[in-house]
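Section 3.1: Structural characterization of target chains.
Under the original work plan, the team committed to producing a structural model for every single-chain target entering the pipeline before any wet-lab resources were allocated. The record below documents one such target. The sequence was received from the expression subgroup and is listed exactly as submitted; it comprises 192 residues.
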Amino acid sequence: MPSAAFESQHVSVVTVVGNPRPGSRTAAAAASVAELLASELGTPYRIDELIDLVTLAPAIFESAADRAALDQAIDLVSSASVIVLATPVYKGSYTGLLKSFLDVLRPGALAGAVVVPVTVSAAPSHKLLADHHLRPVLAELGASVPVPGVILEERDLEDLQVVLSSWIRTNAAIIQATTIALQPVAEPTPAR
């Protein structure tokens, strides 16, 4: 249950999906995580705050491409309180699409944000690799990653709500406390 102090602040949960396939199972899993997390944090889940990077690939990879949508995505991510960052595991790491998006963010762009990595792997032996490789990049961008990521195998997608409910029960309070701690403190109004 969100605290009264937490409810009074604007908290946004933004989802970023680094799967190079549109409409992927990774995107569906990320949206489920974001929706459950937003509910736990007492903030609305908004589908328009889901950034599917495959739709931005031309702007990410081609300097001559129209950058308006990419700039809007960068602004949305840079101002988010909580970011659900999802990727399939490709060759033992996160996708090049996700890496390229993170590379266009300015230094410190994720300062003040809590990031929840979500990884989906086909092989049990690879399930921790993307999360392990992603955390140093997130730290470089200033993000706080206070809880273990949502580490999924493809078979977990069949009973996703069961897997996620356990993860939410274990981690939601820590995410909430960290988000509160990272919120900017309003400057006091000087007395006249």
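Residues 1-8 have pLDDT under 50 and may be disordered.
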